[in-house]
Amino acid sequence: ETGVTQSPTHLIKTRGQQVTLRCSSQSGHNTVSWYQQALGQGPQFIFQYYREEENGRGNFPPRFSGLQFPNYSSELNVNALELDDSALYLCASSPGEFYNEQFFGPGTRLTVL
Amino acid sequence: AQKITQTQPGMFVQEKEAVTLDCTYDTSDQSYGLFWYKQPSSGEMIFLIYQGSYDEQNATEGRYSLNFQKARKSANLVISASQLGDSAMYFCALGGSTLGRLYFGRGTQLTVWP
After folding, report:
1. CA distance B107 to chain A (A)
2. By CA distance, what is A39's nearest residue in B?
């Protein structure tokens, strides 16, 4: 059974740029959630994708967008990067759209300069 | 509103001793779930244990147990026989009626010393 994977591991961008982060869900899981974890904080929910549709969104602006593909992998896109977007971005997959046990990937650490 | 509170920024425990990490929650949902995750310095969130709001018995997973007191809205994590490898950040999380969304506390940094 393959776990959740994320790429890249680390990324450095400058303010105003755009970034795409990728996530492959665990085998058999059709739901992917994205979280932002700022330094010293707990993860904050960005949004969830269930069967290729956005299925819930946290308090994040529209410049945070995502996609889920037929194989249930997912992308997180962030446009017009701001310094405050520097964080660890975590992807979690689960076997359904409800608050099931979510399995997290290793995260992508984004630094915005 | 959903909220998780972890009041202990840091905890220290000697190897082989037990330790309790506190977590209180607030929710208006009748059906909800409580989770504990471990986050080593590498960043990955590792699932430890889950308690459903209708579960009558406290959850246990190996050395981890969850002390669930519904009336007090608390869901404390108990780690028995601590090991050096238990040193990490621990997060309590709440899942409720908002599909798929987990609400996390600010975490407790656990340090196990020899």
Report:
1. 6
2. B106
